[in-house]
Design a protein that fits this description.
It is a single chain. By secondary structure, the chain is of the alpha/beta class. It has helices spanning 42-49, 72-78, 95-100, 112-125, 141-154, 171-186, 198-204, 222-226, 229-237; strands at 3-13, 16-27, 31-35, 57-62, 65-66, 80-82, 159-163, 190-194, 207-212, 215-220. The strands form two sheets. Strands 6-7-8-3-9-10 form a six-stranded mixed sheet, with helices on both faces. A four-stranded antiparallel sheet has the order 2-1-4-5, with helices on one face.
C-alpha cells in the first residue's frame, strides 16, 4: 500500500522561512489537490519532495524509505515522480524516443524489448500512438503535458505530482487530461495536483491541502476546505501580483 509520510518540514532561504513545519500523510491511491495563494510554498514543497532541494529539517518517507536526502533520480526510482509547469520534453526527439529516456535512469542495461513494449502500452493508454514518430517540439501544449505524464508512467511511480497540468491547455484537451488523471488514479497511483484553476481542483480532488506562507492551514475534503475561515482569509487577504515561490 502506498504510504507517503511528510513530517515537520522546514525550509529557509537565508532569512526567508518558506516551509514552516509542514506535515501530512498519504495512504493509498489518493487524489489530492495542493493549493494556496501565490508565495504559499507550493513549489518549494514540491522541490523538497522530489529531491531537487533539501529541507533544513524534517523528513519524508515513501513506503518506509527515507527520501528527503536522496537525489531527484533516486527519488524517482523510489517511486515518486513529478511533472513541471513548463514542460521539459526533449524537443528534437520523437514522442516514442522521449518515452525511452526514463529507461536510462534504471541503473542497468535496459531490456530493449520490454522498454519498447512498455512505451507502446503508455502510448495506447494516452491515445498518442498516432503521434509516436512526431518530434516533441511539434506537439501542442496539452500534448506536451500528456507526454510528460507518459514519461512518468514509464517508471511506474507510486506517487505522481502534477504541477499546473492545465496551464495553457485548450479546454477540449483539458477534459481529456481530466480523464487520464482519473484513470491513472483508478489504476492505483496517488496523485497530487498543483493548480490555480479552482474549478479543476474541486472537480478532480477528493482531498485538499492548503498552504499559506509556508504553513499547512487546511487538510480535508474539498467542500469542508472551501468553507474553512482560514482558507477564505488566505485567499481574500493575498495581494495580487506576488511572484510564486521566488526563492525556489
Amino acid at each position: 500500500m502506498i504510504n507517503l509520510v511528510v513530517t515537520n518540514l522546514h525550509k529557509r532561504f537565508g532569512g526567508l522561512h518558506v516551509l514552516k513545519g509542514v506535515s501530512f500523510e498519504i495512504n493509498g491511491p489518493e487524489l489530492i489537490g495542493l493549493i494556496g495563494p501565490n508565495g504559499a510554498g507550493k513549489t518549494t514543497l514540491t522541490n523538497v519532495l522530489d529531491g531537487a532541494i533539501k529541507p533544513n529539517s524534517g523528513t519524508v518517507y515513501l513506503n518506509g524509505e527515507r527520501i528527503d536526502q536522496l537525489q531527484p533520480y533516486q527519488v524517482a526510482l523510489a517511486g515518486l515522480g513529478r511533472t513541471f509547469q513548463v514542460t521539459r520534453s526533449f524537443r528534437r526527439m520523437t514522442v516514442l524516443e522521449n518515452l525511452y529516456v526514463p529507461a536510462l535512469a534504471m541503473g542497468r542495461e535496459p531490456d530493449r524489448a520490454y522498454i519498447h513494449g512498455k512505451a507502446m502500452e503508455v502510448l495506447e493508454f494516452l491515445t498518442m500512438d498516432h503521434l509516436r514518430n512526431e518530434f516533441a517540439q511539434a506537439l501542442s501544449g496539452g500534448q506536451q503535458k500528456l507526454l510528460e505524464l507518459g514519461r512518468l508512467l514509464m517508471l511506474n511511480p507510486d506517487v505522481i505530482i502534477l504541477d499546473e497540468p492545465f496551464a495553457g491547455v485548450h479546454p477540449r484537451l483539458m477534459e481529456i487530461i481530466y480523464d487520464y488523471i482519473r484513470r491513472v488514479n483508478d489504476e492505483g497511483k496517488a496523485i497530487i495536483i498543483i493548480s490555480h484553476q479552482m474549478d479543476s481542483i474541486f472537480s478532480l480532488s477528493r482531498r485538499l491541502l492548503v498552504l499559506n506562507y509556508g504553513d499547512l492551514i487546511a487538510d480535508g475534503p474539498p467542500e469542508e476546505v472551501k468553507n474553512d475561515p482560514a482558507v477564505i482569509e488566505a485567499y481574500l487577504g493575498a495581494e495580487e501580483g506576488e511572484d510564486e515561490e521566488a526563492p525556489a
